[in-house]
Records
---
Amino acid sequence: MARTARGTIFTSPTSGYELTNADMVNRMQVTSHSWMVMAHLNDLPGIKQLTAKIPLLFSVFYNKSSNFQPAAQRVDMYGDSLPPPTGNTTDQGILLETRDGKYSLKVTKYKTSATNASSTGGLNNLMWYLGTGQVWFAQWANRFEFNQSGNLLSDKVPVPDPTNTSYNYGQAEGETLEQAQAREAAAVAGWRAWQKSVDPRFYTAWKLDLNAADGNYTQAQPSGLAVTEDSVSKGYEFEFNAQATKNWRLTFNAAKTTAVRSNVGGTALTDFVSKYEPALNNTKAGDLRLWWGGAGNITSLVDWNTRFGSAYHLLKLQEGSNVAELRKWRFNVISNYNFDHGFLTGVNVGGGMRYESPIAIGYLPVLGATPTEIGFDLANPYMGEREFNFDFWVGYTRKVWKNVEWTIQLNLRNAFVGDELIPITTQPDGTPAGYRIKPPQTWSLTNTFRF
């Protein structure tokens, strides 16, 4: 079976997808395929007679499909259009059922690969820094080079003071004024060299004009900027259903999932980082100071590592290993009982339990080969909490008019939950750095009429 889907997104002419511009509408056409084979073993010739007296029915299945997501107008950090996310999934499994239909067990093994998917690793919230950081350091390079008291080239300093750290490098311990000035000049020259080496597409995409006459540099993050990654997810799903008695039904399902990332950030971000970091680490560009010129002030290298580089490299280090923020196991149990005689006739009661296994929320930093290199102890992550949630309900059903059936039900979700916070990130020492609010206890009353 073939399905054709259309979405309105921009895409590159070299992406392999059809792109037209009729009536100012961008059109993409992709064909996805899906097929499935299922065999009921009890009905196969030569096996049917042998299994006639066995109380179980056996079925096996195999499914393969491809799909895409019409993610609109995504671009990389150079402003180039990104192709849509695509995926391929393979499912295979077995289904066991009792002949009376009261019990069934389904086990599925699956594998899903995704290409050009929007990243879930957390870099999306940091991409602002790529443009803003370049503006910050361009303005401070001007201040130091031209002895400005402000960020604009039009700002004048009536009496230049070589010891004024608002626009000059301060002296480090054991450093002379002349050495501090030489260090400043080398840092500015290194930054100018970096600016000249930047891919022009970056300045165009971020609307950053370094030729502004007054040095009033601004930037704007590209519309539709997306961080992409490729991934492969594997796992098992289990589903058990039981009609234990005429009135009591029980359902249990579980999932075990592992996922591996690759190509985090995509081609453009990888290209930018591969050029920027050598400039910061191997040239004086990394010594350009920010927020005044005092000897202890933060530098471009430290600012990069603090705001973006450490998070980026943590994700790159995790490439090829299991995705940390994905919970490995999930369980759900649901039970419901219907009363059909006595004074409780028409009443149903039930409950459910949801479980999620612990999750990695941080890593211990470890020093690298040099003082500016920091790694992470990936083998021993800081683990977040496992989660249990409970739901309960009670309902009543009766006929109110001929073929009209009325059901009223009271539902309690996330029972026993108070004002609780769940850690989601950690400080380097493992103490929580951020929290999310645990979904609170809620209740609802529903009325349903069937006719």
---
Amino acid sequence: MSPTPPNDQPEVSTAVPPETIIQTHHTITLNGQELAYTATTGALTLMEEIEKEDKSEGEKARATIYFVAYTKDGAEPGQAEPGQRPITFAFNGGPGSSSVWLHLGLLGPKRVLTEADGSPTPPPYRLVDNEYSLLDKSDLVFIDPVSTGFSRVVPGEKPKEFHGFKKDIASVGDFIRLYTTRYGRWLSPKFLAGESYGTTRAAGLSGYLQERHGMYLNGIFLISSILNFQTAYFKPGNDLPYALFLPTYAATAWFHGRLAPKLQANLTHTLAEVEEFALGEYTLALMQGAALSAENRTAVAQKLARYTGLTTEYIERTDLRINIHRFCKELLRDQGRTTGRLDSRFTGVDRDSAGETNEFDPSYAAIQGPYTATLNDYVRRELQFESDLPYEILTGRVQPWDYGDHQNAFVDVAETLRTAISYNPHLKVFIANGYYDLATPYLATRYTVNHLGLTADLYANIHLTFYEAGHMMYLHRPSLAQLKLDMAEWLETAVSRP
């Protein structure tokens, strides 16, 4: 057999992979009322239009997107059809994360059983009914982007074609369009719920769904938001994160009892004081660089030490610029412990106490095992979906992530969100923030919101809430209870008609 000429392309299969969709029926008690619901799980196939050699059009399969959907049985009072009930499409971030965290931590009808503060119980782990589920207010669809969960490309396709900023938004957006069409939800009030990089995706989707599919949303839940990456990248020449992370450093020091008694008295009052310093005197000092006088430099270093629990000498050596990874290692160094990045309430122990950064994130270590074990058991035992594929909880297989047009520039989807709200002034945005979140600090989110450039009336569309917890604030039981109340109340306003 002669070798294939190098310019010849192998024939692309247009066969559609079989879709396995499983439905099971359940009940849960929410707010004292029994709610019957259907769980639908499986994978939908994303298709792409192609032009054949004879110029006719066809389609080819590209990827299968795994999802778990929960729909309330029967229509709501006052609704003609069940398909008119609100529906929320949810996903996490990474990039490379499945939707397991929002699924089994916050929104879904089951949640991982943990201690009240979010720390794990000893293995083996288990699920319990989630009395804080949003299912009483909205149907839910949890989406695993390509290469996460059970979602995979079809044979002949390259995974990297989905591993990028624009490609990811397009594939998730196309799935939402497909699900909405397949299950008759075009007339439902529609919401997105994203966490972490999932908030970046959600903001991007607000524009993509409008422009590509003509789909206008009622609202977006942003859990631990990052829309403007300049606010979180500690790079030479970018001083913005040092000021915006400072209140979270202070909250962390407060939680671990490292501040002076006056500052330890009240967290809210302390954070207000630190925010004023961060956006005022500290920002002005950073902007001056080497032109900052020795006297002012010393004064700023002393205030930073007072607010962070670090020593003045250490802060002087950092040139007044405290990197988040150094902070996690330094704050409790004298105790031989590190603090978490996702949730700085958690602490860990490294082999090398003299190192510059921590060896692992103790807040991620606390949740990885419980969520992995319970998800793998739940989808097979209760949802009856069988697959021998590994369920990719948080995978590095999506790296390197392609940021395409953002080379030599910070990713910023805040402008996409602003445009979406301008086109659709009924679009509401709910943003939840954790005081102990060192991945997406709350002041960085507030800064981004304050720079959206919306008119005063449209700024009223954005609602921010704050919790004494971390990146996944729902790990903290009191915060989970309050977050459910806040989300439910806000959702009702987002679907109400004048």
---
Amino acid sequence: MSEVVPGTYDIRLNALADATGAGDYFAVIFANSLTHTRYQAFVGDGIKSFELLRAWSVDVTNYDASYVPEYVSVGVEASPYFGAGIDGAKYFGTDQNGLALGRDKLIGFRREAAATNNLLHSRDLGNAAWSTKTNITAAKTATGLDGIANTATTLTATAADAIILQPISLASAARCASAYVKRRTGTGTISFTQDGGTWTDITAQINSSTWSRVQITSTLANPSVGFKGGTLGDEIDVDCVQNEAGAVATSPIVTTTAAVTRNADLLTYQTASNIDFAVGTLYGEIQTPINSLTRYLVIVGTGYSGIAGASLVTWRASDSTTIAQQVGLSDVTTAKRKRVVSWGPAGLSSTGDGLAPLTVAFDGSFGDGATINIGSNTNGYIGPVAIYNYQMTDAQLQEVTK
């Protein structure tokens, strides 16, 4: 036996063996106190020389290596040890103030379509890209949305009608301008624009203690986005100013010297072993922003089978042949709402908010293809989503959506 490095050894053994007796082989076994064994065996036909596996010992627990305690996972109650709270993964059950996160804060998977912020220097309004500055100063001295000092911009009116603008060359389209704004000093009127001349009063939407997101939507070419302060000395902090195609502002896309595109979010599962096209129930919860026109909660396969919104208060189940459309549901822009569909021998049913289901004939296959798409091209919050391998009764469909 020779030590290679401290704690690691090469072990060699020469042995003489014959084939007499009841057995025709023998084994050399090394066992430690933790019952791990390493062995070699050979037929007894003379002298054999062999090398056993290299043996080593390492103290990984700050205990005597002869006693290594059983591993105990931190933050997980029982085996199997995976999921939130596994050792080595940081997660939080409280907010930045140490307060417990309520279920109303756990709003699910945020799914967004692809979007491009065409404004440059979205956090630094002192940059030359904000080319029109009249009666106003802009300094990147404010603490931003991320809580980091000097990442957002303070705008100060040096006279009445203080204006800052950034013009953009773009073809005509439905566009949304947005920004996070917080009042620093003063009480005068604050306005926002995306055409450089039509001003929207946002005074009532902002305050001096928290960031408020303001947005305006219109169809136009060559937008010019900016702010106007009506009173000398008034100051506002501004962060993450955005101009993007569409009818609703998406999550912040930070820019500097060039426009930035954020790819669409994608969450899919395979249909194999996850859904039975012949019988089942599909449940989900969804909330979408105001003016979000497309609401696909779940799409199953290559067609349009799944749960989809025909309006903010009308939802439907489709099996690609027939549609079960439930009307009179709650508006999904004000809170997360529960929606469910079922299919099978009892037909194709759709409901939500605890209403009696609407049922139509079922064509025999709820979807096709290999993919379950959560959210499809929706902008909004989705989850939880559940798929059951049986068709719920009408009473059960009402109960789960209350």
---
Amino acid sequence: MIKILCVGKIKERYLEELINDYLKRIKKYHKIEIQELKDDINYIKEIKSLELAINQKDYNIALDIKGKTLSSLEFSEIIKKTLIFNSNITFIIGGSNGLNESIKNKCNLVISFSDLTFPHGLFRGILLEQIYRAFKIINNESYHK
């Protein structure tokens, strides 16, 4: 199972449509779910909520601007190899304050998609598109350029 653990809810309809489209596409390859946590004004509560939601048995990947950058091919290889040895991958997206060091320290890997800052809903769509692209690459199907 692939899980996306994220802080906050999607409010924009166009982002919901984007996210649902990629969820549908990915489900042809692998089970996937999104777990939304409450975006809390109290950052300490938000951190605690994330800490409780992280399963240490999963392969946890934090998404952080200071993480390692990967190509789409490298990203697909991580997914492919990880799913051989661990049946669960959890991607963790923080709230507006980002991810606390304690959360990143609980993760197996910290990656960055860009030095740019993205709105959380849009980034969720970008992550899903890259997961979909990874499965297309893994299955040697046309899509990736």
